[in-house]
Every structure is written in structure tokens, then in C-alpha cells.
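Consider the following assembly input.
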Amino acid sequence: MKDSLLSIEDLVVEFKTDVGTVRALDGISFELPRKCITAIVGESGSGKSVTASSIMRLLPGSASSSGAITFRPLDGDPIHISSLEKNDPLLLHLRGGMVSMIFQEPMTALSPVHQVGDQVAEAVLCHRDVTRDEALAEAATMLSRVGIVDAENKMHQYPFEFSGGMRQRVVIAMALICHPQLLLCDEPTTALDVTTQADILVLIKSLQQEFNNSVLFVTHDLGVVAQIADRVIVMYRGQIVESGSVREVLKTPKHVYTRHLLTSVPGMKTGKKPGGFQAWRVDDWKLDAAMGSNTTMSGPFDGHQVREFKQ
Amino acid sequence: MKELLSVQSLCKSFAGLPVVRSVSFNVNESNTLGIVGESGSGKTTLVRSILRAIQPDSGTVRYRNSDGWHDIHSLSDKSLLPLRREIQMIFQDPFASLNPRMTVQEILEEPLVIHRLGNKAARRQRVMEMLQKVHLDSDSAARFPHAFSGGQRQRIGIARALILEPRLVVCDESVSALDVSVQAQILDLLNELQEELGLTYLFVAHDLRVVQEFCDEVLVMYQGQVVEQGSVERVFEQPTHDYTRLLLSAIPSLDPDERLKPLDRQLLDLSTDVVG
């Protein structure tokens, strides 16, 4: 697939810890198609956030990685993200310019001591040759596009004056203001109420259709996956156990772990939900809830647990 | 079924802003009452008033045990102490609610020490029993919280709440911070313990799917008021209030063919995404 926006080949990430080396990603490979939303789903410790951070080269110093990450912008040559130097100007141009990221907790992603408008405009000033006034005008347009009413005045407020959902809208505005070709979302709705989550999901989807970019959406909730994604990658303990179109994976899951995740979604047990999913809750899945209690990732592991669960 | 808890016209304001507005409900023994609503709807203030962690402005909270009914807010501190044993809480954040400098043994036996129950050997024995009940290894007792995953820490929080053999357990968003698969295990554990010990749960949550799976009765709160209450089956299948319908329509379906539509708050005049 030479036409994909991003390809990851045999990516291995290891962390040095007090108890030895922990392999967070165990040689994963996938392609990210253009103009579509791909979700990575898995539980804590499955390596989904590490994958997203690797693309931004945001891994901490204790991490060592190997493998190739190649980004192919629409205009221009492919960029080999994994082989860029830390201070390469291309990397700075990439971050926030061509690829940007939304985090789980909007309050920690925003500076508490700067006005919201300045924070959104900062990305424009960093990446394009514009005046401060032009950047602020663009920020105001973007803020109203993400659903902030009375953006002209709200620009001069501080993050603490905003509710959780509004803060996440500001973060989305910051991420999209330079029209990145790839948007990484790391659990952007996990900290939000169910109604706010619905608003943010609808917003991300409509912005993706408007800007025609690609989105990589990290989450642990298959309900969210079903709502937002076109394609899905299921991860468990640093490996990809299943991937495909959302319809294919959620309606006819092949891997035992995917089915386990599906039955973990609350409300499934009662079988009251339409859609015929409850039929999957059968006892002989070999994989009961006990499996999930062992995912602290302490100590080295070689991925044999994953193979164990393959049918 | 006998009533265990009765809350009548409970009100609480902070700095003139009403947070809980005349809330009344009853909870039956060995039942699970879910309290749902968005952030700011007053659910945490409500349950904290029930625990007398907050003094309400008006209204009563009555709790019944073998000695009869007790008005929680008119008791002296001394006569409240034995009731504290019977009403316990499981918190939301399994990282913040355990002291990082105490071992699991110390964390679990602290309630016993406070209530002067048993000698050292008996307390140790009791801690072992509780660890077994929440499916943790007995060698966990000597370890510190940092050595456990989120789900395991929540099990420690549950063991601490249950070590005093309470009758009423308040779970304030106790599974909200957990991954779905870990969440399913913790809910299974809470169900198992309820059957074994006849516990009554007050279960605060913002995730309606969890409430649907876990609770018998549900209370829907919006801006400090109860807008709907009833059995889970009735409220989920035939909601009567517009706000309940809005909440239900926000649940992400597992069916990719059934996609979320933008929520229509204007229709209901329920703008929740406002500051304050």
C-alpha cells in the first residue's frame, strides 16, 4: 500500500524499568489509509498510546525503539519519522503542522496562565509566516468552528473558566488550526460525560469530513469505536490481534480477545441492546474476566500470552 | 423488602448556588440504587450529605438498623461512630484514594484500628480473609499500592470498605476510571459480594450502560433535581423525561450502522455545556 498516509513496519518499543526491560510494542506493522478514521482499541498496557506517541516521537528517554515509521504527505517526499534526529527542523514542522495530537485530559494539555485565544494562535505563529493579529483572527474562526459560542470574547478567557467539554473543544481547535493531514486522538473522550462525549465524537467526525484528513483514534471503549471509526486495530499486550473494517471486526470478530472486549462493554450482559450482540456472551470463551487482571506488564514478557489466546 | 435508607427533601447550596434541590428517595435492603447525571448535576454532593461528609441546608437522611431509625444529621459525633461502621464508601480514583506510604496490610487494618476491633493477630487474619474475598493474593498484604494495577487497587479499596462488614456501601464513580474489561471484573466482584453479604449499594455513575447492567433502581439527576426515578427496566425502556431521553441517546451503540446524531439540547432547553 504505497498510497497510505502512514506506514509502520515492525515497530518495537521497550522501556527500561527497575524490574527489567518491558516490551510495550512487540513488532507491530500497519498502514494508515488517507481520509479515514482508524481506531486503535485495547486495554491499559496494550501499547495503544505508545503507538500514538511513537508517531509524534514523544516517547520518554527511558524508551528505545526500532522499526520504521514513514509518513507520506500529499505534497512532498515521504518523511521517515523514525530516523529523524531529535532536533531536526523537519520534526518540528511535522509536529503540530502535519501531524497533531489531542490528549485525554484537556486541563493538562492547556496552559493555565495563558488566554485561550493565544494558545490556539500559537500553533499558527509557529508554523506559518503570519502576523499576530492574523493568527488571532484565524484562532477565533477555528474556535467558533469547533462550537464555542461567542468566540471573539471567549478568546480572552483562561482554561479554568471553561467546562471539561469546552476545554476539549479548545484542544481540538489547537490541533486542527494548521490543517494537519493526520490527527492523533489519545482517549479524547474518556474523561468526559456521556453527553459531552457524544458531542465531541460528532464534532471530530464532522471536522474530519470537512478537512479530509486522517484520524488515528485511541480508545478502550468499543462503543466509541463503533461510533467514530471506519477501520479498527485491536491490540493486546503490544501486539495487533485483529484489524479490519469496523463493521467486519465488530459484527464478526475473529479473535477471542476481540470478543472478550465486546462482552466487557457494560449493558451487554442484560441483552437489552438491539443489534444481536448478546448472542456472543457464551461461557466457553476460555477467556474470562480473570485474563484482564494480569495486565500490569511488570517484568519482561515475550508475547507468548497473546499466542496462547489465539484459537 | 425493608427500607434501609430514607432521604427526604434534601437541599444544599454552595455560595448561594443550589447544588441539590429537594431530593427525596428511599432505598430497600440488598438493593442497588443507581444515581446518574452529568458532572455538576449534584450526585456527589448528594451522597456526601448522606455520609455526613457535608452538612445539608435542610432535609433529613434517615438510616435504619436493628436499633430502629436514626436521623444521621441530628446524631452526636459519638453516637454516629457505630453507624459509620455500617455505611462505607468506595471512591472513584484508585490512585488517589490509597495512601502510597502504607502497605496494603496497614491500609486494610486501619478501619479496624479506628473502631478498636480485635487484636493484632485477629486483624491480620481478617485482612487475609478480605484479600481472598476480593481475589487478591495473600502476599499482597506486604506490598505498597504502587505495585498494583488500577483494577487491583480498586479491589483494595473495596476490601477496605468491606472489612467493617457494612450494610450500606456508597460507590462514587467507583468503576469510571477503569478500562472496560477491568470494569466488568469489578462489577462482577461487587455483584458477588452483594449476594454473599446482602449489601445495599448506592451507585453513582455517569455511564448509563453501567447503571443498566448493575442497578435495580435508578435516579436521574439534572441540575440538582431528580427528574426521573424508577426501576432500571422502566426508565431505560420507557423514559418519561426529556432529559433521560437525551442521556439515553448519547450512549454509543456497538452497532456501527447506528451512528450518533448531534444531541438536540435546544429542543429541551438544556444547555449543559455552560460555564458554572
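The CA atoms of residues 255 and 310 of chain A lie 7 Å apart. Ask yourself how this observation constrains the way the partners meet.
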